[in-house]
Amino acid sequence: MKFTIVIICYIIICLIVLLLWYSHFKHAFPNAMKENKYRLPVILLPVILDLTPVLGAFLPKGAVARFFEKIGNFWYGYLLIGGMLLIASVIIQRIAFSESSNYRKRQGAIGFLAAVIVLTIGLSVAGAQNATNTKVVHYHVNIKDPAATDIRLAVISDLHIGVNSNIDTYRKMVSLINDYNVDAVLVCGDLLNDSYAGIKDPEAYEEVLSGMDSTYGTYFVYGNHDVERRLIGGFAMNGQTNPKRDPKLRTFIRNCGWTTLNDQVVRIQSGNIQIVGRRDAEYPVGNNGKRLSVKKLMKKTDSDHATIVMQHEPLELKELGKEGADLIVGGHTHNGQIFPGGYIAALFNDQVYGLRKKDSASSIVTSGVGWYGIPLRVGTNSEIAIVSVHFTR
Predict the structure, then answer these.
(1) Is 171 found in the same domain as 49?
(2) How would you classify the pairing of strands 184-187 and 218-220?
């Protein structure tokens, strides 16, 4: 079912953008568009590029499929940005030139077509650069617990290592984390982009990711993209209820020196601080495809000590607070990744981004280090969250 929906959505997007693209050329250059030598290139170029994600998805796994997948992911980004600009262009032209002469309308169409092309290229290039320009954001959280002493956490999420990834992005991430001498690193899921094979050189990535220094170690929970699924334009097609997880991923995580938490609790700082890691909400692989309820999970904790919950999707925040969570950290939303995606993400998640405090619990959602599918960030940032936790009496 999901396979069909994703394919249909992609076809619809491609057709809408193609029609808008051709319509702009037709209004800007009406005489030229009557001749095949001009009309066909205008139509065929986007159609050929539209096929690159499809070839990347359905060709046998290998270098050729990786090439088309990589190009297709970029093209999908250009398609979405260009599509939004083309729609805006149509609306503005209809308002601005509604009573103008045909000559004025044609001049306006030429100007708007040029603006759409320049803006699409400019935003895409800037978005690609911004996606790899990892920033550091800081949060301060107060928790009542007289036994614990202050700690500093690095919270990262959504690394999405895949065919478009550059290992230098993660080298920079590790270097930035190590600059802050943190007590623990919390990795809140989506290490992969739905395919372990998307990691070009696993050993090199293991070497880099194992370099994060902290007092108590690095803890990891799985996300909804840490499973094996076919992608088109970077977006998963098959909606299996119980997708497989490549066994090599578990080995990869162990080689990074990380501790995986699947509805489990670890205690640090002589037991004064508890870190709870939840199974993924969408694909809780293992345990018969189920994750523990909030109530059952929190029964594993000691209510007399500070409790930090890490999960991928920012869900059940109110319930976790009621059951004793002091701090909840997660990712998943990417803060929308490409504006105005944050408004869409708000429809499906309890919290999209940043720090919120509800009653006695604080919740932090990070926009993540990587990107999903489209290797662009427009209007959002790739980031590391440095969280200073202060304990009070």
Answers:
(1) no
(2) parallel
Domain assignment of residue 316, given as a range: 135-392
Report the predicted TM-score, pTM, of the whole model to 2 decimal places. 0.92
Count how many domains the chain has. 2
pLDDT, tens only, 330-378:
999 999 999 889 898 888 888 999 999 987 899 999 999 999 889 999 9
pLDDT digits (tens, 9 = 90+) for 215-263: 999 999 999 999 998 878 767 766 556 788 999 999 999 999 999 999 9
Last residue of a domain, one of 131, 152, 183: 131
Rounded Cα distance, 133 and 31, in Å? 45
Residue that is last in its domain, among 101, 131, 161: 131
**247 half-sphere exposure, CB direction, 13 A CA radius:** 0
Please tell me whether residue 117 adopts helix, strand or coil conformation: helix
Which uninterrupted H or E stretch holds 274?
strand 273-277
Report d(CA 209, CA 198) in Å as an integer: 16
232 and 342 inside one domain: yes
CA 52 to each of CA 6, 55, 58, 233, 234: distance values in angstroms, whole numbers, following the listed order: 15, 5, 10, 8, 11
313 with 238, same domain?
yes
Burial status of residue 20 (CB atoms within 10 A of its CB: 0-12, 13-18, 19 or more):
middle
Do 96 and 150 belong together in one domain?
no
Same domain, 208 and 322: yes
- Spatial neighbors of 179 by CB under 8 A, at least 6 apart, are none
